[in-house]
Design brief:
This protein has helices at residues 6-20, 32-35, 38-43, 55-67, 78-81, 86-94, 123-128, 141-153, 200-212, 230-240, 255-266, 286-292, 297-315, and strands spanning 3-4, 24-28, 48-50, 71-77, 101-105, 134-136, 158-161, 167-168, 183-186, 191-195, 217-221, 224-226, 243-250, 271-276. With 321 residues, it is an alpha/beta fold. Strand 10, helix 9 (200-212) and strand 11 (217-221) form a beta-alpha-beta unit.
């Protein structure tokens, strides 16, 4: 299994955009090596701006560049760009619907030893609540490259979430990818697992093991968080009758919350959520943290079985063969 950080896919896409689109510019907040924007800097130094540790200034500068016709990619750690610069994103960029691409690296608890201050666990919630904001959470480096290339052509603000650790590449260059349209990773009829980001690989492992127990799991890659593919969510609810959401983010107001909002208004079914449960992270080995905070295939399997049990109780099928 080949592993790469999703940020590598971002760096590669920036190089491709630099060659194909002279309006693309890149901004960073003194973390270019960590975010892979240094790859663009080395090849296109006249179109790269290191603003320093001044995230609010970086977003204001990006807004100005967008007003001048450029396509700015403003990049730093997600916890800083979504947290410290939220007011600039809200009032300067989203209110004016400016064409700024906002890229938050080091998302999730897998940042590991950097600890709670650097583990972005809330930015999906912070971004999806904003009018005009669009958001993508790629599952691997290959999908990140596709998402970044697509973002450059999408009008208006777009937020892309990146991760630091090398994670399995389980999509291919040949897979179709469309903004706002979920990807079906595995067919199934008993329960649906819907996730975003690299944790989806754990969902696929969970589906494989559940299949050995006779449970048929559908697995959906909901890479676009806003706008959500409501059609895919509702089809899964109607056809499988139980949903499990999986994310490396707070379950409160994250992907799980977004999916629950769709279901409660249209087609309520049992929903179980796998994610961070209203707590901050801590320093540690990423694999150990995944175990402690319940982000492994074991946790996803348990959630799927709970959702199934609730579905059977609801239908009166307590003694399913």
């Amino acid at each position: 299994m080949i592993k790469k950080p999703t940020r590598d896919g971002y760096g590669n896409a920036l190089l491709m955009l630099g060659e194909s689109n002279p309006d693309v510019v890149v901004l960073d907040a003194d973390l270019a090596m960590s975010t892979r924007t240094n790859w663009f800097w080395e090849k296109y130094p006249d179109r790269f701006f290191d603003i320093g540790i001044a995230e609010q200034d970086m977003l204001g500068t990006a807004a100005g560049l967008a007003m001048g016709g450029k396509i700015p990619f403003a990049t730093t750690y997600g916890v800083f760009i979504a947290g410290r610069a939220w007011d600039q994103i809200r009032t300067t960029i989203c209110y004016a619907n400016l064409n700024v691409k906002i890229v938050g690296a080091h998302g999730g608890i897998s940042v590991g030893p950097d600890g709670a201050t650097h583990q972005a666990l809330e930015e999906i919630a912070l971004m999806r609540v904003l009018p005009n904001m669009q958001m993508i959470v790629p599952c691997d480096a290959v999908e990140t490259q596709k998402a970044t290339l697509a973002a450059a052509a999408i009008p208006g603000p777009v937020y892309i979430r990146l991760t630091r650790e090398p994670t399995p590449i389980f999509t291919s260059e040949e897979d179709e990818w469309h903004f706002g349209r979920a990807n079906l990773l595995r067919s199934g009829s008993d329960v649906t697992i819907i996730g975003c980001g690299p944790i989806l690989y754990e969902a696929l492992l969970a589906a494989d093991q559940l299949a050995q127990q006779g449970v048929s799991c559908r697995v959906i890659n909901m890479h676009t968080i806003k706008p959500l593919d409501e059609a895919a969510i509702l089809a899964a609810a109607r056809e499988t009758g139980a949903i499990v959401t999986v994310e490396e983010h707070q379950v409160n107001a994250g992907l799980g919350g977004a999916i629950a909002e769709v279901l409660v208004k249209n087609y309520p079914v049992p929903v179980e959520m796998v994610g961070i449960k209203d707590t901050f992270g801590e320093s540690g080995n990423p694999d150990d943290l995944a175990v402690k905070y319940g982000l492994t295939k074991k946790n996803i399997m348990a959630a799927a079985l709970r959702a199934l049990e609730r579905k059977w109780v609801r239908r009166g099928d307590l003694y399913r063969d």
